[in-house]
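Lecture 7 notes: from sequence to structure.
We start with the chain below.
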Amino acid sequence: MLCISLEACLSEYKPESVDAAARILGGHGLRLLASRVKSVRVVTQGPVLNKLRVLEALDNLEVEARYVPRLFSSFYVFRGGGRTCAAFGGDLLLDVLEGSSIGLLMATCGDDALGAADLFEKMWAKAKGLLDVDPYLLGRTKDWGAFRVVVELRRLKVDGEDDEEIADKIVREHAKRVFGIDDPDEVARRFWSTIFAARDIPVKLLDDPLTGLPVTAPLIYYSVKMIRSAADRCPDGPCLRTTAKLVERALRYVPQSKLHDAWRAALKNGAERRRIERSPYLPALLLLTGRVEIGYDKSIDARYYRLRK
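Predicted structure tokens for the same chain:
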């Protein structure tokens, strides 16, 4: 049969999972597909468009993505209800799902579908994780710079006893690789540019080793916004006391996501809340923006935050 869109194929076959081989991968198309089924696996040769949206799907939905160097056509394998079907044609872009693409998809549940499923498994076994390949291979698209910074930050293994030590280690030991430069002021500028680009896209920058919670770009962005309007009083002027209070306020404005729900759940638990208060990792990333100063209030045994003068 012919499908006028991938959405039409999904409505016809009602799959539980989809395997997609896409010559071109779009973040918006991937998110929409993943919202329709329980799980998605995708292999692509690139270019990858809307890379930050691809990260959002990987971080928040049941999506796995890998890179293959050569892919000669796009196809989709549908699994569900005890049968395997496939559709051929149409790179994984938003217009292919919505039906605004000029192409049609040829769909079948016969031997061609089983052949496509076998081919996908062979490619999947040989493919590399999308975030494990050089970002240059995925194409220099508009958000390439922010995507590259996020991917490189995730690869870091930085340990430290306090926020200043961690921020300093990132600049001294890893800034050249992550940001392409090791000047602290330029690092802060490029880091903030990345945060701004992903301010409303729930993508993870790193997992906090102490709490296990994902520090996201929106959490950093809206934390800085909360500090700008801080109403607490400190010896040197307005501030915002305690990390937990800062995170609670920032969570009111961040986009809804699985990553941020993990923070909300942790803040309801007393032991987790204390770990959030002690952890230096989110504060270190706030220091890295170049916009925040952090002090320590011994009377409450907690950090306080204010804008850098």
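Points to note: Residues 121 and 231 are 56 Å apart (CA to CA). The mean pLDDT is 93.
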